[in-house]
């Protein structure tokens, strides 16, 4: 990771416009067809949440804007991406776990299982400060239509939230919300990411 001069990037105008905005976050909501993920999860014994996190990382790795993030008043370029998941820990609370993205699903699954188990047992967060982290929160036990994350002025990372998937006949859908800092990307980049995410989910 390294600090870059915003004026020497494609985000120069966005940096000037949105870095000091009182509310620079934008949220898009989209319903995804996750029929294939549910099928693979049941057939292969893989966690649905892990498959979602991997698909998110896979899609984000194809959008160059994900590798740059405003941190404080600086613009930082990262070489790697990680996906965060919230873990129910042994004390009945929740902890945060960053999982390094790997294009290899088996490798990502191995890291996911190892790190989430470690975090659940120790109740200590696992943070990757040298990667651009995409936050996620799965409210899998609840049927919700959408969610908008808060803006704390501390974390500018992109963030995704979803609830329970919905089964109808031969199709399973999942409504997700995607929040991002406008300095990092524009609405078109975010919409493209969601389209790529759908493609990755359908072809995993």
Give an overview in words.
This protein has 204 residues and is of the alpha+beta class. The chain is built from five helices and ten strands, in the order E-H-E-H-H-E-E-E-E-H-E-E-E-E-H. It has helices at 12-18, 35-44, 48-60, 105-122, 187-203, and strands at residues 2-4, 25-33, 68-71, 74-77, 81-88, 94-100, 132-138, 159-162, 166-168, 171-181. Strands 2, 5, 6, 7, 8, 9 and 10 form a seven-stranded mixed sheet that branches. A three-stranded antiparallel sheet has the order 1-4-3, with no helix packed on it. It is globular, with a radius of gyration of 17 Å. The relative contact order is 0.24. Keywords: Transferase. One of its GO terms (molecular function) is chloramphenicol O-acetyltransferase activity. It holds the Pfam family CAT. InterPro entries: CAT-like_dom_sf, Cmp_AcTrfase.
Short summary:
The chain has helices at residues 12-18, 35-44, 48-60, 105-122, 187-203, and strands spanning 2-4, 25-33, 68-71, 74-77, 81-88, 94-100, 132-138, 159-162, 166-168, 171-181.
């Amino acid at each position: 990771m390294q600090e870059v001069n915003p004026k020497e990037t494609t985000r120069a105008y966005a940096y000037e416009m949105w870095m000091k905005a009182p509310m620079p976050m934008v949220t898009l909501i989209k319903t995804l067809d996750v029929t294939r993920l549910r099928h693979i999860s049941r057939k292969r014994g893989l966690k649905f949440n892990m498959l979602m996190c991997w698909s998110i990382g896979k899609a984000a790795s194809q959008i160059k804007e994900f590798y740059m993030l405003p941190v404080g008043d600086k613009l930082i370029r990262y070489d790697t991406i990680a996906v965060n998941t919230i873990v129910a820990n042994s004390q009945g609370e929740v902890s945060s776990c960053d999982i390094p993205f790997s294009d290899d699903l088996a490798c990502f699954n191995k890291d996911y299982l190892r790190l989430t188990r470690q975090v659940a047992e120790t109740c200590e967060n696992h943070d990757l400060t040298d990667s651009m982290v995409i936050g996620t929160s799965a409210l899998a036990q609840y049927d919700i239509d959408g969610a908008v994350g808060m803006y704390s002025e501390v974390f500018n990372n992109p963030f995704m939230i979803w609830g329970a998937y919905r089964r109808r006949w031969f199709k399973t859908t999942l409504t997700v919300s995607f929040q991002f800092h406008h300095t990092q990307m524009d609405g078109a980049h975010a919409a493209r990411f969601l389209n790529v995410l759908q493609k990755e989910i359908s072809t995993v």
